[in-house]
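Go through this:
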Amino acid sequence: MWGMNTPHSLATHPAFVAATETPRLLVVSDFDGTLAGFDPDPYAVHAHPGSLQALRELSELLNTTVGVLSGRHVAGLEKVCPLEPPILLVGSHGAEDRDGATIPLTAKQQNFLDDVGAELEALAAQHPGTYVENKPFQRVFHVAPLAVEDPAAAQEILARARQVDARGFPVTPGKNLVEFSALEITKGTWLQREKQRLQADAVVFFGDDTTDENAFAVLGPDDVGIKVGAGATCAGHRVADIDEVANVLQDLAARRGRYLARD
């Protein structure tokens, strides 16, 4: 296994060890900033090969479900995340999966997306290095390309984007972006529903950004939430970067495999 036996900060933690030996385990990870790094071009990123291998190995184990839960729309996620079923690919913070939308939009919601999208496009047209991403349930204003050249200007324009009237719909800031959503669904609501559907005894969830805090917030006492990188979090555990995520996933797969082989 890629990089196996590399030490990591959770290796001896009781909650992590217990999760590897739970009867039914759900392992879910964010993508950007967790399995892969960042790039001004969102389709130029590459997932850590060690993480991909570990997730594939976990998905082949009995009573172990694996998923990638991203803010990207599924079509975009599939372009950068080469994981096949039975691994779940879930996009738009839980609103769509490989089979398409899980929640239909109302006329009011679609009108909101059209209107806010037009306002954001007008702003992006005035500022090179910014752009609008159109997702099935969200419109996202990005400043990452500009932030490479002029971080201060990027944050100033991002602040202007946040002032666009959201009409009561959810607005979520992120790393060099702000997202306007037509839905109240979050990674937390999806994770709760999936855990209940699978009757999972424990969840291990990895994430790095603001939207992942919604998932960390719903984890129970037997679950393991792992924040990637710096920043405030309600997760119980933290790792430094995507390399350490890969180390944790590899160890999780190895321990889980050994535990199931004993039965």
User: Anything to note?
Assistant: The radius of gyration is 19 Å.
